[in-house]
Amino acid sequence: MSSSPFLNFIRSELRLRGYSLKTEKSYLYWIKYFIRYHQLKHPTNMGSEEVRDFLSFLAVERNVAINTQKVALNALAFLYNKLLDQPLGDLSFQHAKQGRRLPIVLSPSEIQKILTNLNERDHLIFSLLYGSGLRISECLRIRIQDINLEQGSLAVRCSKGNKDRTTILSRKLTESINKQKINVHKIQQEDNSKGYGPSLPFALGRKYPNAFRQFSWMFLFPSTSICPHPITGELCRHHLHDSVPRKVLKKSVHAAHILDKRVNCHTFRHSFATHLLMAGRDIRTVQELLGHNDVSTTQIYTHVIGEHFAGTSSPIDQLL
């Protein structure tokens, strides 16, 4: 089914409209799932009733998470509302309400224990997650040109919502970053001698044929192997796959004997925000560093520290 003209049409439309490859993969997955669920009926012969039936199946039979339901609905809404010009209208489908979940946060000492069990490259990855408040995908997509050691800043490109932002970069990571850059430069020189280099965004490779030879386009954390570019098919070196640091983290958490918390890569971003607010930083500044559209999203971290507003303390503290 993956090579069908219809799915190729959807894929080309997603790329034409600038959707990320991650979104493309997700949307195609749910559209194929929807078609298979309805015994391979063509979507043009179905509509809102079949979509509602499919979403109910996911919620009741498969018991998928609320956010998973939303992604499936977004994929089908894109298909019908934007491609097939068959608006779904009111589906009369209510998502289950998701209560507020407080994020898991590590203490500084717990983070230190985890970092001590890592090699240089992985130590730098998790130092950036915690020190700059990055998502794991944002960290692995860092290119050399995004790093500004002099200003202590880091450019985050095409993050969630296809937005760019600038966040802080600890100058204490300068030595580690410079060491990693030396390793990366050696990898690039070897790749260039064979006629390939880092994977480049969109059509940049066609516009600038020699861009792959520029060190600025190299990923700070390149993959250990060569692969075909997902769009052009040309051999290139992509960034490290996120499964690598996830596996490393699991071992390090176990070695640090942190057994009472469910720790993942995103926990370091949660800890970054919480510790900044505990130190009295302005919530608007933290919002900007995290790249949140709405400050209400950032306010969840004030509940983690038990204070409605960052820096607020009980008035009795002044007397006792």
UniProtKB/TrEMBL annotation:
Gene3D superfamilies: 1.10.150.130, Intergrase catalytic core. The keyword DNA-binding applies. Residues 1-84 form the Core-binding (CB) domain. Keywords: DNA integration, DNA recombination, DNA-binding. Residues 101-314 form the Tyr recombinase domain. InterPro entries: CB, DNA_brk_join_enz, Integrase-like_cat_sf, Integrase_catalytic, Integrase_integron-type, Integrase_recombinase_N, Integrase_SAM-like_N, Tyrosine_recombinase_XerCD. It comes from the Bacteria. Belongs to the 'phage' integrase family. This is Integron integrase. It comes from Marinomonas arenicola.
